[in-house]
């Protein structure tokens, strides 16, 4: 049975190895780990292969039966040097991760595709797949943009990441997801929100701190789950700026998501 993963943004104030027991206590048996920041100066926990911190994380993973589902965030910008991400890929592979979250900030599409292709080649020996996330405020803004890039790069370890909030805020629909070739979908992130979009000046703040727990908003989550391949990796990403306690954030999220999954008849541990 697939494991529901706790996206690191939900509890970004807690890094490895402490992230592992926190997730387990909340009922999660998989986590994502932010090894790289998607923005200069952002929070990240750059574990390195063979380091004491990574070994401590592995021990806690074994003790709590928690796996690392993915690492993030690899950022493709105009000046990205592909080889700079080799240590993160090596650490991710040592942790057992299978996927990498990708953000694209390079406005020149052809250059971004070339960079993504090189990153795919770098990641392949580590057994890592790269999932391209779209966000309305980035050059890769919509589902169609991410799909076009994955098709253009032509690599068997390049996929699309669908975040429920970004899908709806960018004008996407569940019908568009259902119409996709299922083989293009690498992973999905769940959260909730009002169906009405905030003003443009508040879009980023909503995504980074003001999402809602599944079931608290009006996003078409049940319809989205029904449109997805049954085996697609799922995580929940709900940073709650109003809840200061990371353990409580994770516990509330697990409880709410369990109800959603029960309603969808999609069992995940």
Automatic annotation (TrEMBL):
InterPro entries associated with the record: IolE/XylAMocC-like, Xyl_isomerase-like_sf, Xyl_isomerase-like_TIM-brl
Domain annotation Xylose isomerase-like TIM barrel: ranges: 22-244
Pfam families: AP_endonuc_2
Keywords, ordered alphabetically: Isomerase
SUPFAM superfamilies: Xylose isomerase-like
Molecular functions (GO terms): isomerase activity
Name this polypeptide is given: Xylose isomerase domain-containing protein
Protein species of origin: Caballeronia cordobensis (Burkholderia cordobensis)
